[in-house]
Here is the input.
Amino acid sequence: MKTCREKRRENLKTVLVASAILAAVTLSHVAFAQDGLAGINQANQQVRSYFGAGTNLMYAVGALLGLIGAVKVYQKWNNGDPDTGKVAAAWFGSCVFLVVVTTVIQAFFGV
Here is the structure.
């Protein structure tokens, strides 16, 4: 049978091992953590870096839809439809809107 002293030593060893494990886990989490402000700034820079690629993608999609709209206006004009002017104005207006929105977002947010 173990004496009281031996039981205390075993309990102390268990507590020390558990404390060492807890300290190691805590320090590893602290080592991987970063400052909140640094994380926000990094996210801000990454999102801003996507703006150029997003703008180019938007222009490419706009160019494709513009070509489709131009063909639609041409077909209406050849068929003699009376609403050709309205369709042409809507097509041109959407193209202008695409360019203006990009410029306004760029100026407003300083991207």
